Amino acid sequence: MIKVREGSNSRMLSVGAYQPSRIVPNSEIVDKIDSSDEWIRQRTGIETRRFADADESVLDMAEAACRQAISRSGIAVEDIDTVILASITYPFQAPSAATALIARLGNPKAAAFDINAACAGFCYGVGMANDFIRAGSSKYVLVVGVEKLSDFLDPYDRGTAFIFADGAGATVIGPSDEPGISPTIWGADADSRDAILMEPTWLAFKHGAPDGIWPNISQQGQTVFRWAVFSMSKAGIRIMEAAGITPDQLGAFIPHQANVRIIDSMAREMKLPESVVIADNIRTSGNTSAASVPIAMSALLEEHPELHGQLALLIGYGAGLVYAGQVVQLPPKW
Ligand code: UT7
After folding, report:
1. Is 256 one of the annotated active-site residues of the chain?
2. Ligand 1 centre from 43 Cα, in Å?
3. Spacing, Cα 184 to ligand 1 middle (Å)
């Protein structure tokens, strides 16, 4: 019979984030899309977002977030044996961003790979990290979500130009006496995969795409909005059931930061009591896709240090359409 390893419970040991220094107010976006600061605030909650400089890369941002998460975790970088990097904006097919990242971090022997689960990427990664540790395949896993969406935005597109932004967020997940991460509830609705697209493909350039064309993200806003409000609150309820908790046991709700109206309606549908602190970091960060949940988590812990160690409901959803979420015990104070 094949030998199997004994795993252990796991939990988040830390979270770290990096956001570019350039703050971009709505006023800088509106002229090209015939919009207004008021419309963007009312329809999405976004007041400002961060855009990276031209020479600031996905790897630069990922490295900064990871270094902060590692230093807060109390774990040496060499002890990290697995690195999962979630992104849809790393501009190389191979080698992976994760391998470039471990080389930069000075830990080039770790298992490392990229995942593409769009705005659900971080929660997909957290679920995998938990399962790897439980199965004994890994001991300390670094999960990072990072995006430079400003490279793939059409500033004239009324459906996306004001939404997406840049940044990175990371967590170190390691063994724990008590379970600190619930089973992950995840899935897809692949019949709606046209609802968020990045087009044309890189291959289009080989075959003569016209000058001035570049892969840009586009979305059917209403379709995604309705799916998120209807299906993601149901997914949130299933996540809490899988974790064996009721809404009043949560300290925080940290959903993907896509739209404050979606966040508010999910909280209503899931009947979260007023005691649950709700992350609405989208107001100053925009939608950073795979980075949005860890950036929001890091900001929330800075604002509400009392949440360290409390339970939080995480849920990410986006292009695919895909989703994933879990209940986690927020990391201890660093
Ligand atoms: O992270 C990936 C997941 N993505 C999401 O979760 C996105 C979900 N969708 C949304 O957040 C919203 O659909 C948007 C914020 C993208 C758009 O808001 P909406 O309330 O769904 O707008 P709409 O497309 O229904 O348009 C409503 C009105 C229309 O005008 P009329 O026909 O009512 O006169 C549009 O022409 O708003 C107009 N409009 C705009 N006005 C100013 C549409 N886009 C804009 C704009 N600025 N950018």
Report:
1. yes
2. 7
3. 31
Dist. CA 181–CA 19, nearest whole Å: 26
The β-bridge partners of 115 are 86
In this structure, the number of other CB atoms found within 10 A of the CB of residue 99 comes to 18
- pLDDT digits 0-9 by tens, 140-154: 999 999 999 999 999
Q: Which of 218, 222, 264 to mutate to test the pocket of ligand 1 (most atoms within 8 A of CB)?
A: 222
For the entire predicted model, the pTM comes to 0.97
For residue 210, pLDDT beyond 80: no
Summarize pLDDT for 62-88 with one digit per residue, the tens.
999 999 999 999 999 999 999 999 999
287: Cβ below 6 Å to ligand 1?
Answer: yes
Q: Calculate mean pLDDT across residues 295-321.
A: 98
Over 186-207, what HEC string results? Answer: EEECHHHHHHEEEECCCHHHHC
Cβ of 43 less than 6 Å from ligand 1: yes
**66 part of the active site:** no
Q: Domains for the chain: give ranges and CATH numbers.
A: 9-176 (3.40.47.10), 185-329 (3.40.47.10)
